[in-house]
Amino acid sequence: MSTPAVDIVYDCVGYMKDRPEPPVIEQALSMVRDSTGRVVEIGICEATVPLDFISMVVKQVTMIGSVGFSREDLAQALDMIWTKKVDRQGLISHEFPLDQAKEAFETARNAQESVKVLLKP
Q1: Which end of the chain has fewer CB within 10 Å, C or N?
Q2: Helix (H, G, I), strand (E, B) or coil at 98
Q3: Coil, helix or strand at residue 118
Q4: Domains, the chain, ranges and CATH?
């Protein structure tokens, strides 16, 4: 079963170099609709992202960068991650397959029971 093409994908994760799966931006490019699709990059990358741009060119996807914090906020957050003051793996409280997106969003709405809910394609 193939993943349906979507109009817009928001990558709120970024690139975490110690994760074994492909970068989320790569997954976003594979999911977004040809010609009219958009990928909005909100997540922050710890390192240079290994990305094959052929998908973006062939699909004619629009990529948009967006930031909602200051450089000082970013520096502080990265320092806390690099010095292990924050366990980012512990921030993922729930994981759902893509076909359970409705349940995932319902779980994410409950701030008492969830921190970060991950949808896996």
Answers
A1: N
A2: helix
A3: strand
A4: 1-86 (3.40.50.720), 87-121 (no CATH)
